Amino acid sequence: MAETLLAARGIGVRFGDFRALSDVTLDVPASSLHAVIGPNGAGKTTLFNVLTGRLAPNEGRVALAGRDVTRLPAHRRVHLGMARSFQVTNIFADLTVAENLRLAVQAVRGWEKWVFWRGLGRQIAARHQVAALLEDVGLAPRATWRAGDLSHGGQRALEIGMALAADPRIVFLDEPLAGMGIDEVHRTKELIRGLVPGRTVVLIEHNMRVVLDISDRITVLAQGRPIAEGTPAMIRADAAVREAYLGSGM
Amino acid sequence: MSAFQEGGRFPDGTTIGVAAALVALPFILPSVTLASELVVFAVATLSCAFLLGMVGLLSFGQGLFFGIGAYVSAILLREHGAATLPAVLAAALVAGTGAGLLALLAVRRRGVYFVMLTLAFAQMGYFAMLALRESTGGENGLTGVPRTPLLGGFGALAGPGAIYAFLAVLAFAAYALTQCVGASPFGSVLRAIRRNEARAEALGYDVRAFKVAAFAFAGLLAGLAGAMHTVFLGFAPPNVIDLEMSERLLVMAIIGGASAPAGAFLGAGFYLLLADFLSALWPRWLLLIGLLLIGIVLFLRDGLWGGAAAWLRRLRPAATPHG
Questions:
Q1: Model confidence, pTM
Q2: Which CATH architecture has domain A1-81+168-250?
Q3: N or C: lower Cβ tally within 10 Å for chain B?
Q4: pLDDT tens, B98-114?
Q5: pLDDT in tens, B259-279
Q6: Total count of domains within chain B
Q7: Would B265 be classed as within a structural domain?
Q8: A13-52 b/e (C-beta count within 10 Å ≥ 16 → b)
Q9: Which of A76, A113, A158 is the best substitution to test chain B (most B C-beta atoms within 10 A)?
């Protein structure tokens, strides 16, 4: 197996008396696609927030390529090669699609974001990167649209594009397919699968057919604990998982 | 289209408009003194409007930095015999640095708590001025500030006309610099923070560092205005640093509209001319300003400038810029 890129050890999160996560351990090898699944309220998004730095865990450690990042704020992790999309679409709705991507590109282009003495016209290299990202996520024809006017699927694709703008080693996608139509699901599935092996992907997703189809490994969370981990075939056969998902048509 | 919104450019039509207005003001207004007062407060209001319009930060503390600029320049001119231009610029830098340091604390909180911290700064500033009676003159202020030449013995500020010309040039520089910052990559980050702070953070922007920088820049503008005020009056009265100063700057910014730097200039001008007119009629004129503020908050959310811009767009629907 390839080297471990992301390692989480014994993650625990409490909100008051409520234990959102207990003793979650996760190893994601480089260049793999790792899915985290589980019923609603299992703690998947909380785990993402810990892994990407939005939330500091009460217990446990997170390491990226061997470096401890447990206490590192989210914006610093981006510069180490970690990027994410959000479960609830999180874009700059009033800005154009291209401007959303330009902001994402600018964030990781050294000191360029601190330039206050000249206009945006000089960002030639950034402009080329934006054009390439627009192609990658299939939004080139809608570059000048107001982002909030895109279809739901278009907005989800834009989110993925914004995550990719940082040229991340590891991408966290929180329910990228939620609310998409069938055509969009297929296109986005191809987009996500195409990210590996160039990048590492960690995915939260409820669409079991897609998850079983594209994942290398799957971790199943229930009530804040991992109850199973393995290849799609192993997860499909796991009795505990069937229990947790009873009636969900798996 | 304005420099606090996406697509704003520098220079644009308002840059020329402001330059023209600054040249015309002493001839239009009843006195050069009123014109001087107007440009001083235009710059101070720009400070509030920048924070509110660009970053979405409501500061009740800009009067503190105005006061720091006023006192530092007064001390440099009176005690150290500094030339006027370096004294004014140094005062602005001190105020900007002070604002940056206080911002390190304030940006740790958001929303109402941020506002309360800026209010606390403003309040402390007034009492710090009283406590430092030796340097600030306490309740008497600093009187008899000399009007030294601009630089190296040249450029005597002889008479109200010369003083106005100097202040107008500084005001134009402040306007141009603010527009330039608004249209820059740095400015685009500040707007992104205003629109969606969590998203900006997730993209890799250090939101707190950007807020500190914005606050320092606004402090620099307020400090510059304070120093201009000292040059204008020839003394530094204690009310330059009181809480009411902070409040007045904010009211001017909201009346003019914080969506554009031009709104700040319009707001300060409108407020001062109205005050000049009303105060001669009725000693309780501030009540009418209060009513005006209520009207604007209820019916003209983007202030006079926003209202005028919307009205212009309706007149020329074909010329509406997009995006």
A1: 0.89
A2: 3-Layer(aba) Sandwich (3.40)
A3: C
A4: 999 999 999 999 889 99
A5: 899 999 999 999 999 998 998
A6: 1
A7: yes
A8: beeeeebbbbebebbbebbbbbbbbbeeebbbbbbbbbbb
A9: A113
